[in-house]
């Protein structure tokens, strides 16, 4: 199964500003189209509870929402609330009752950290960057950005991923896809 993450950051590897919100400066039409195409290609989107609340599900996509507020799983229509501490991803996905060959991981920070290693690690991590944007005091794409002062690239490399060449999405906007180092 493909597990593909989509994150957009500024120059300082942050996904949200100091208020915990995704600022307008990070929003770009071409990057949004790239992200939406990724979600469309997946049968399920995985996201954190805060992101779920911040983004209404207009497209009625199947969402697997990570939260510690449930013991294991709870279904609400197209949305399944999931506590990964107590249930494996493969078991959680069965609740949707569809064949799944791709999931998209949409963040935020601790959700991006969750799939960096272990049996359900990323097959692809698409890291988009909008040049010229800084979000001081904001939320890093990974915990290590905030707590260890590392770059996203350092963290991905440390976790065993290697980057492809950057692809231009728009003026000043590019995406680098990271994949596990071939063994
Ligand atoms: N630029 C980007 O690419 C991007 C991507 C995503 C989000 N964002 C923005 O970032 C902001 C929110 O991101 P965020 O990092 O603060 O929050 P988030 O990841 O969307 O949600 C955090 C919540 O997810 C749950 N969670 C996270 N890891 C978990 C784990 N291992 N096990 C169980 N539950 C877990 C917890 O929910 P409970 O508290 O319910 O237990 C936690 O409080 C929003 O403004 C959003 O728009 C930006």
Write the layout of secondary structure elements.
Elements: E1 2-9, E2 14-16, H1 29-41, E3 44-48, H2 49-54, E4 63-66, E5 73-76, E6 79-82, H3 89-94, E7 102-105, H4 109-114, E8 124-130, E9 139-140, H5 143-147, H6 152-158, E10 161-163, E11 167-170, E12 173-180
- In CATH, the homologous superfamily goes by the name Dihydrofolate Reductase, subunit A
CATH class: Alpha Beta
Rg: 16 Å
User: What is the domain tally?
Assistant: 1
Arithmetic mean of pLDDT: 97
Spell out the helices and strands N to C.
Answer: EEHEHEEEHEHEEHHEEE
CATH architecture: 3-Layer(aba) Sandwich
Key phrases:
single chain, alpha/beta, 10-stranded mixed beta sheet, 12 strands, binds NADP nicotinamide-adenine-dinucleotide phosphate
Describe the structure.
This protein is of the alpha/beta class. It has a single domain, classed as Dihydrofolate Reductase, subunit A (3-Layer(aba) Sandwich), CATH 3.40.430.10. 23% of the residues lie in helices and 31% in strands. It is built from six helices and twelve strands. It has helices spanning 29-41, 49-54, 89-94, 109-114, 143-147, 152-158; strands at 2-9, 14-16, 44-48, 63-66, 73-76, 79-82, 102-105, 124-130, 139-140, 161-163, 167-170, 173-180. Strands 1, 3, 4, 5, 6, 7, 8, 10, 11 and 12 form a ten-stranded mixed beta sheet that branches. The protein has a two-stranded antiparallel ribbon with strand order 2-9. β11 (167-170) and β12 form a beta hairpin. The longest helix is centred in the first third of the chain and has 13 residues, at 29-41. The relative contact order is 0.24. The model has no long low-confidence stretch (mean pLDDT 97). NADP nicotinamide-adenine-dinucleotide phosphate is lined by residues 7-8, 15-16, 20-22, 26, 47-51, 54, 66-69, 83-84, 106-111, 114, 139.
């Amino acid at each position: 199964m493909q597990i593909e993450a989509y994150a957009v950051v500024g120059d300082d590897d942050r996904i949200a500003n100091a208020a915990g919100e995704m600022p307008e400066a990070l929003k770009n039409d071409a990057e949004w189209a790239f992200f939406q195409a990724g979600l469309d290609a997946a049968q399920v989107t995985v996201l954190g509870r805060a992101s779920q609340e911040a983004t209404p599900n207009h497209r009625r996509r199947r969402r697997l929402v990570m939260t510690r507020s449930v013991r294991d799983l709870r279904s609400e229509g197209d949305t399944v609330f999931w506590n990964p501490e107590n249930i494996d991803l493969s078991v959680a996905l069965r609740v949707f009752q569809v064949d799944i060959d791709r999931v998209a991981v949409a963040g935020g920070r601790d959700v991006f950290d969750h799939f960096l290693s272990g049996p359900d690690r990323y097959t692809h991590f698409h890291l988009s960057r909008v040049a010229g944007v800084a979000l001081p005091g904001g939320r890093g794409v990974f915990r290590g950005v905030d707590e260890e002062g590392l770059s996203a690239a350092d963290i991905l490399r440390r976790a065993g991923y290697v980057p492809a060449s950057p692809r231009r999405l728009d003026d000043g906007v590019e995406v680098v896809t990271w994949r596990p180092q071939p063994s």
